[in-house]
């Protein structure tokens, strides 16, 4: 029997596509190991497999179940010692650039171009000792409530992440999604106090999702907003569930949701345009979505946040913040620094 890591290493050496993932709070890991090197595309969301889709909506790939070996592995919680990362600090130039980007986002909001925009940046870290087994195990152990994954395709690259954000869970026409926004450093989540700016920003995401879904659903249940912890930070979350009308399809519902104002902005088209024109790098699969499509008759999709793209000797980290009329460039910068710690934390020294 294959162990998880022998299988990952074997497939990676062969340069063959694979994905391994663990759902939030699950004690089982699942893997799809593709038996050819084709880059399969999603056409109408009736396919079965693991989808990996870009932010801009132009790249929708899948590791099809039918072309893969499906394996499952048990995940055991262990106390592993993770060395503190030698924190590499972003440069003053990176900070200045990001703060200028935020300031121009705020100016566009004040000029009435849009109400909210999510602006992000990347950060490149030198990681000559990167070890996929060590980093993936650390992600699994450190973030038990996240959707933790490792995805590889020669034409896409190697991505790992631990995301707190569900895009859509659906079985038949019954579905659930969440509105997640507002960020602060985690303290005691029972007593967290949220500033009005964060509450309004999150409410905007909830209102958008509800208004998008309402015409296509028979009934929608919307929870009260509550606080969740994701690693060393907290967010405000609202749960939204319902069932879509018979004449609608999974593909339509995904299109209604992605990209939500949690990762793009509002109104969507103008905010997306601003992002594509003004961010200094290409998001590619960051803030896209990924997960199970029609596996065992249900779909379980997540937003690709708190992730890294691994290249030869370096990794790219990606992090962004929701910008509203009241955003202060320096605080938003600090928020991206806090978010970067989710991945930096697992990149400390790797003893083989
Ligand atoms: C864009 C990111 O996160 C999103 C933005 C948030 C915010 O603006 O507060 C919170 C959660 C996510 O929806 C990210 O983590 O990179």
From TrEMBL:
Catalytic activity: chorismate = isochorismate
InterPro entries: ADC_synthase, Chorismate_C, IsoChor_synthase
GO MF: isochorismate synthase activity
Keyword Methyltransferase set for record: no
Domain Chorismate-utilising enzyme C-terminal, residue spans: 95-339
Gene3D superfamilies in UniProt: Anthranilate synthase (3.60.120.10)
Catalytic activity, EC: 5.4.4.2
Enzyme class, broadest EC rank: isomerase
SUPFAM superfamilies reported in the protein's UniProt record: ADC synthase
Cross-referenced Pfam families: Chorismate_bind
Keywords of this entry: Isomerase
Superkingdom of the source species: Bacteria
Family label: Belongs to the isochorismate synthase family.
Protein name: isochorismate synthase
Organism lineage string: Bacteria, Pseudomonadati, Bacteroidota, Flavobacteriia, Flavobacteriales
